[in-house]
Amino acid sequence: MTRYVCRTPGHAVALDVSRDAAAYVRELLGPYVRVAPGPDGPDDARWRIGTADRERPAGEEVVITSATEPPTRLWYDGTAREVLFDPAMPRSFLWHNLVRFTRILLRLMHAEEPEVFLHAGLVARDDGHGALVLGAKRAGKTSTVLSALRHGLRFVGNDDVSVRADAGGWTGRGWPRRVSVRGDTFAAVGLPGDTDRLLHPAELRDLAGGPELLAEAPVGVLVFPRFHPEPGVVPLGPEETLARLTANELPTVVKHADFLLPFFGPVPPAVRQDLLARLAAQVPGVELRQDFSALHDGTAALTGLLDGDVPVPPPAREGGRRT
């Protein structure tokens, strides 16, 4: 086994695996997580992931069951900060869990900062200006993102983006996870296919013929897509933008790993809400109304927003709220 370090800005997880396993993890986590051989001496990783080298290692045993996957057997030790998998699991499924728990641990670390996780996509121009696309299922989020890729914008994320404030404004970070695309969306953006598919970000990029993926991008506009008989861009005031942001905050940062939560200190809800309030006050929000049969028109409007052509909401009436 060789020590590798899986890294996002400010955080790291150690991975003690074979070279082939590391290559698999690197392929599925890139470019969001950098995977490289560790140093000869101590590293800065807070947690370690590996496979158990004895029948019963130290720590608590957990078996995660699912109707669609084999059982995941592992041991975790919060004092030693390590997660060890049963080496008897099928190799492909073991490698799948290496990817999954590297992502889980890094997300829990990021959640300890003033960083909020949203049900959102993020696309950006080559100069880095990005649009955060937020919405529930069937709102048109994935269609908007995929159409943007078809028109040369760069993919950062689709269903899962974390946002933080920094010295330069606001930055959105994508997370490596598969993208669910409905069959009718392919035809709507001029791509072959008519069945629902789950695609890794790199597969989605290759299919759309877009440029290289980005791990993160500055957020310059908040876009809430909606299919509507009268397409156009409707500006939103800060209060309405905040309400929609709050509705699209992910309820949990990770799934199927509650046993790890006691070892991390996430930001309190009040702090996250304050972060969203500042985001709504500082970054313009719009409702992008579009026709599913003419997504290219919505993409043209989105490009205009990134160019700075953002309409201003009317002033709120005294005692009322912005719309």
Automatic annotation (TrEMBL):
<protein>
    <recommendedName>
        <fullName>Serine kinase</fullName>
    </recommendedName>
</protein>
<dbReference type="InterPro" id="IPR027417">
    <property type="entry name" value="P-loop_NTPase"/>
</dbReference>
